[in-house]
């Protein structure tokens, strides 16, 4: 079977052959087209564009609410939606306990990704004021005690965050 054109696959696990060179080629191509997110199975690979590419506004927030992962381009909001739907028991085949791991080098965008995921989860839980209030109350406290200035980043996180409901 012939390989699809570079950059046309949203989930790289669907490729018949995936090695380091193919992975890097796909990511490089997608990044050049401002497609900064790529799935590798349940993992979302994000490459920080270091500029606003306009994919976090209300239009995108609404698009990924209750969206089906396979029908939409990869996005951080899809991960937030999947975790929220599972946590609320709306996806019966999944565990209600959810964990999103965000990792990368200093300056890679972990803190911004965390803020965007929390923003989307808060948007998703409109009407569930208890969960919304828990998230809103704990995040500023964590930020105040957990960030420090480094040579690479003025607001570098010094900890992991674990939010549970």
UniProtKB/TrEMBL annotation:
Keywords: Actin-binding, ATP-binding, Cell projection, Cytoplasm, Cytoskeleton, Motor protein, Myosin, Nucleotide-binding, Repeat. InterPro entries: Kinesin_motor_dom_sf, Myosin-III_kinase_activity, Myosin_head_motor_dom-like, P-loop_NTPase. ATP binds at residues 104-111. The keyword Repeat applies. It comes from the Eukaryota. Residues 7-165 form the Myosin motor domain. The keyword Cytoplasm applies. It is found in: Cell projection; Cytoplasm, Cytoskeleton. It holds the Pfam family Myosin_head. Gene3D superfamilies: Kinesin motor domain. Belongs to the TRAFAC class myosin-kinesin ATPase superfamily. Myosin family. This is Myosin-IIIa-like. It comes from Saccoglossus kowalevskii (Acorn worm). The lineage of its organism: Eukaryota, Metazoa, Hemichordata, Enteropneusta, Harrimaniidae. The gene is LOC102806069.
């Amino acid at each position: 079977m012939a390989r699809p054109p570079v950059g046309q696959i949203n989930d790289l696990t669907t490729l018949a052959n995936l090695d380091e060179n193919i992975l890097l080629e796909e990511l490089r191509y997608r990044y050049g087209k401002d497609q900064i997110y790529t799935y590798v199975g349940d993992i979302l690979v994000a490459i920080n564009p270091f500029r606003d590419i306009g994919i976090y506004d209300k239009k995108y927030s609404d698009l990924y609410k209750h969206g089906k992962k396979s029908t939409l381009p990869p996005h951080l909001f899809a991960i937030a939606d999947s975790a929220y739907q599972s946590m609320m028991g709306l996806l019966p085949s999944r565990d209600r306990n959810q964990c999103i791991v965000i990792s990368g080098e200093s300056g890679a965008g972990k803190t911004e990704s965390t803020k965007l995921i929390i923003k989307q989860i808060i948007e998703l839980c409109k009407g569930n004021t208890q969960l919304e209030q828990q998230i809103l109350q704990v995040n500023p406290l964590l930020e105040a005690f957990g960030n420090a200035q480094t040579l690479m980043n003025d607001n570098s996180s010094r900890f992991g965050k674990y939010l549970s409901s």
